[in-house]
């Protein structure tokens, strides 16, 4: 059966790559990064990390992440969906 | 990928989860330029910060300013001075709006009918002799009478080299009046003779601080890792200094590379317009700065660096818990 790769799946992998590079995460690749792992409780990311990533995402996708939204962006999937929806809404 | 739960057992992971999403955003406010003491070694007066800006006297302007600070995301106001209790209306403007910590020398009692649960940190610089020498007065006699048994008060005990071997007596005095204590080290900004730390003294006082924590765990709010950091000036092999300090006022922070730092942190002068460079004196040598809060914050903003091992992450948790207790984000 053919694997269907959606735009969102691609975005998850791309954002995983950005997070790995910006936060210098070790022993993980974009392909092995669990999109549902809790970034704060498990990966140990804090608001400064998220702000760092948000800057790169703003440049990459022209989408600004409101600081007030940080607390709900607890996984890679939620961040990707946030960006995806904002981009889709603006398109 | 190394994860938090892979490094911690159930007990430590539960402790981690209690603090992991606190997202503390503090800033520091000089409430007034005036004080009812003139302590030798007080950075505020020795570096001329009391003359940096004229005080804003209009209470309404303070209220408007605080509202804007909250819009900026500040969720912890740390009030210093001068002596904040000289201007209780300004203190109240903060307290009514957001979590507030007030540093004081304890000579004026904060009325609990107006401030029922505001956390108060009373400065203490040693025993009776040291207090008289450095501050002109034994403040403990007054402050302990004002606050005995108050659950929202602790002593901020600034240890000097002359206190080596004397700390237990102070800790017991504090315990006996039903209060708690957090320890930090004098930076000796005025270069008072005999009050600058020598390396062997720092090593000795570290052991003494550890012993106090072991002997009086219900009184001393601290952690051995904090003792290590504050006495060695090193964390994970890195020396403390300007290029590492997390407590630099954000709009004035042009360091490159940018270190990990407190988000949106500003230390405001009492005109509500002037910003001080950092949480302490601009004239201080950062390489020998002993500021306790800056060193705690240094650990706190470097969480993922502490994910090297179980012990490192446990150390991080203990320091974060200590900070959260001192500023009332979690109970004692």
How would you describe the overall organization of this protein?
The complex is a heterodimer of chains A (91) and B (332). Chain A has 91 residues and is an all-alpha fold. Chain A has helices at 7-23, 39-43, 47-61, 76-90. Chain A has one domain (7-90): ACP-like (Non-ribosomal Peptide Synthetase Peptidyl Carrier Protein, Chain A). In chain A, helix 1 (7-23) crosses helix 3 (47-61) and helix 1 (7-23) crosses helix 4. The relative contact order of chain A is 0.18. Chain B is globular, with a radius of gyration of 19 Å. Classes of the chains: A mainly alpha (91), B alpha/beta (332).
Shape of chain B: globular
Name the poorly predicted regions of chain A. none
Question: How would you spell out the order of helices and strands of chain B?
Answer: HHEHHEHEEHHEHEHHEEEEHH
Shape of chain A: globular
Question: Strand fraction band of chain B?
Answer: 5-15%
Characterize the main sheet of chain A.
none
The helix count of chain B comes to: 12
Give me the secondary-structure category of chain A: mainly alpha
Order of helices and strands of chain A: HHHH
For the record, the count of structural domains of chain A works out to 1
Q: Radius of gyration of chain A in whole Å, from Cα? A: 13 Å
Cα distance, first to last residue of chain A? 32 Å
Mean pLDDT of chain B: 95
Structural domain count of chain B: 1
Q: Predict the CATH topology of chain B.
A: TIM Barrel
CATH fold field value of chain A: Non-ribosomal Peptide Synthetase Peptidyl Carrier Protein, Chain A
Under the CATH scheme, the architecture of chain A is: Orthogonal Bundle
Give the helix proportion of chain B (percent range): 25-40%
Put simply, the count of helices of chain A is 4
Task: Tell me the helix content of chain A.
Answer: 55-70%
Organism (chain B): Desulfatitalea alkaliphila
Keywords (chain B): Iron, Iron-sulfur, Metal-binding, S-adenosyl-L-methionine
GO molecular function (chain B): catalytic activity; iron-sulfur cluster binding; metal ion binding
Cofactor (chain B): [4Fe-4S] cluster
């Amino acid at each position: 059966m053919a694997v269907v790769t959606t735009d969102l799946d691609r975005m998850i992998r791309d954002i995983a790559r950005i997070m790995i590079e910006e936060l210098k995460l070790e022993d993980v690749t974009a392909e092995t990064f669990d999109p549902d792992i809790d970034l704060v409780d498990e990966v140990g990311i804090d608001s400064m990390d998220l702000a760092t990533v948000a800057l790169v995402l703003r440049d990459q996708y022209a989408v600004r992440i409101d600081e007030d939204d940080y607390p709900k962006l607890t996984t890679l999937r939620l961040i990707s969906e946030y960006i995806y929806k904002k981009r889709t809404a603006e398109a | 990928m190394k994860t938090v739960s892979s490094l911690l057992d159930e007990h430590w992971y539960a402790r981690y989860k209690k603090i992991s999403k606190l997202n503390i955003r503090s800033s520091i406010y000089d409430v007034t330029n005036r004080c009812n003491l003139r302590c030798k070694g007080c950075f505020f007066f020795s570096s001329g910060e009391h003359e940096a800006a004229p005080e804003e006297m209009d209470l309404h302007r303070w209220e408007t300013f605080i509202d804007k600070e909250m819009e900026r995301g500040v969720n912890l106001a740390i009030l210093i001075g001068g002596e904040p209790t000289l201007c209780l209306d300004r203190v109240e403007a903060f307290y009514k709006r957001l979590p507030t910590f007030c540093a004081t020398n304890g000579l004026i009692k904060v009325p609990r009918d107006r401030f029922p649960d505001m956390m108060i940190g009373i400065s203490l610089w040693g025993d009776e002799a040291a207090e008289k020498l450095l501050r002109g007065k034994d403040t403990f006699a007054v402050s302990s009478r004002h606050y005995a048994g108050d659950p929202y008060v602790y002593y901020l005990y600034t240890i000097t080299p002359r206190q080596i071997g004397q700390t237990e007596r102070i800790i017991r005095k504090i315990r006996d009046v039903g209060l708690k204590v957090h320890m930090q080290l004098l930076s000796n900004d005025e270069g008072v003779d005999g009050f600058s730390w020598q390396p062997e003294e720092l090593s000795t006082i570290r052991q003494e601080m550890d012993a106090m924590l072991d002997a009086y765990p219900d009184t001393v709010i601290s952690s051995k890792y904090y003792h290590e950091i504050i006495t060695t000036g090193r964390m994970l092999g890195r020396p403390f200094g300007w290029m590492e300090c997390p407590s630099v006022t954000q709009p004035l922070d042009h360091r490159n590379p940018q270190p990990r730092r407190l988000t949106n942190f500003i230390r405001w002068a009492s005109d509500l317009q002037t910003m001080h460079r950092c949480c302490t004196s601009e004239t201080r040598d950062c390489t020998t700065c002993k500021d306790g809060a800056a060193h705690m914050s240094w650990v706190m903003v470097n969480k993922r660096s502490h994910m090297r091992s179980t012990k490192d992450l446990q150390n991080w948790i203990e320091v974060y818990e200590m900070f959260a207790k001192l500023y009332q984000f979690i109970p004692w």
